[in-house]
Amino acid sequence: MANLGGFDSGRNTHQAGGPTLLPVPSLLRSLLSEHLDPGYAAAANSQRPRSKPAEWAWQIIAAAAVVTVFSLAWAQAQSAAPRVRESQQALASNVRSAEANNAVLADRRARMSADVDAQRRSRLEGDATGRRLLGDLDRADAAAAVTPLIGPGLTVTVTDPGTSPDLTDVSKQRLPGSQQVILDRDLQLVVNSLWVSGAEAISVDGVRIGPNVTIRQAGGGMLVDNQPITSPYTIVALGPPNAMQDAFARSTGLQRLRLLETSYGVGVSVSAGDGLTVPAGSVREVNFAKQIGPN
Questions:
Q1: 3-state class of 151 per DSSP?
Q2: Is residue 79 a part of any domain in this protein?
Q3: What pTM was computed for the model?
Q4: Is 186 in contact with 174 (CB distance < 8 Å)?
Q5: 118 within a domain of the structure (yes/no)
Q6: Checking DSSP bridges between strand 267-278 and strand 233-238, what pairing results, if any?
Q7: Distance (Å, rounded) from C-alpha 153 to C-alpha 199?
Q8: How far apart are alpha carbons 136 and 143 in whole angstroms?
């Protein structure tokens, strides 16, 4: 039988009848018997967890700090809430006041425009030259979309379905996360297609389309001539209904609407009718005139 010995064991000589000891260096014996380096052992001993009371004390301090922070935040929110509500009410009141003032001014402008038109006709209808000028002015007003019109035409109604499960579109231009499917460029395409199809006058949700009138989105809202409109969007186009309907059926505008109808459930309706009306458009410039010569 042989046992491990060592150079420092003091038994390097064999004794008769005793076990045979194999000399093993002390370093090798420490590697075989001590599995953790003394330095690591000392570091592990120094990082022993704190006692339970100390650990609980730190947890209580941390919880108290969290509660204090949330209490301060809640108190600050409560103190600021009345001021926020007052600001919101003041802004809402200002908006309502501005809307009422705009309505009054628009009504005043309409009355003054009607008075100017009546005065102009009474002064020009007396002779052939005046009547010729009136005819030229009427044609110019019609081209500028500043007079209301009535006649046959098409009515295109587009209804936005709202939230859609998937707004991925072949154009890759839907608004991520938005509840809108119909965008300003869709209405622009429909209006341009109606012009190409032979429309003579167009309105969108009661707003006349004329020179310098835009259809655009701002903050998720749809604006026509800076006036907000909402779904369903009603587009009225005056013109020869049968020819215009045939041409519009082949247009890119209706094809776009049909694609949106199939992909997202957009409501699309096209119908012909008589006695359709479009309102007068906004006057972009104010022209001043003065009388020259005798009355």
A1: strand
A2: no
A3: 0.57
A4: no
A5: no
A6: unpaired
A7: 8
A8: 11
User: What CATH number is attached to the domain comprising 179?
Assistant: 3.30.70.1880
In the beta sheet, which residues pair with residue 267?
A: 159
d(CA 237, CA 278): 8
Which residue's entry shows tokens 């996360």? 177
- Of 39, 20, 2, 63, the closest CA to residue 11 belongs to 20
pLDDT given at position 44 = 62
> Would you say 201 and 181 are in contact if contact means Cβ atoms under 8 Å apart?
no
DSSP letter for 291, please. -
The token duo for 68 is: 């204090």
User: Cβ distance 145 to 208 under 8 Å?
Assistant: yes
Predicted confidence band at 38 (pLDDT cuts at 50, 70, 90)?
low
Higher pLDDT, 15 or 291: 291
Residue 267 belongs to what H/E stretch? strand 267-278
User: Element (H or E) spanning 158, and its range?
Assistant: strand 149-159
If you count DSSP H runs as helices and E runs as strands, how many of each does the chain have, helices first?
7, 10
Question: What ranges in 2-51 are assigned the alpha helix state H?
Answer: 26-33, 38-46
Q: Which domain holds residue 221?
A: 148-278
Residue 106 has pLDDT above 70, yes or no: yes
Structural domain contains residue 12? no
HSE-CB at 129 with a 13 A cutoff on CA atoms is 0
Q: Distance of CA 88 to CAs 92, 100, 193, 253, Å?
A: 6, 18, 42, 41
Q: Does residue 90 form part of some domain?
A: no
Reading the block at residue 135, the tokens are: 């005819």
Identify the helix (H) or strand (E) that includes residue 169: none
- The structural domain count of the chain equals 1
If you search the block for the tokens 């926020």, which residue do you land on?
84
Distance CA 188, CA 124 (A): 39
Q: At 45, which amino acid appears?
A: N
Amino acid at 65: A
Q: Which residues pair with 122 in a beta bridge?
A: none
Q: Scanning the structure block, which residue is given the tokens 């947890």? A: 59
Residue 3: the pLDDT is: 46
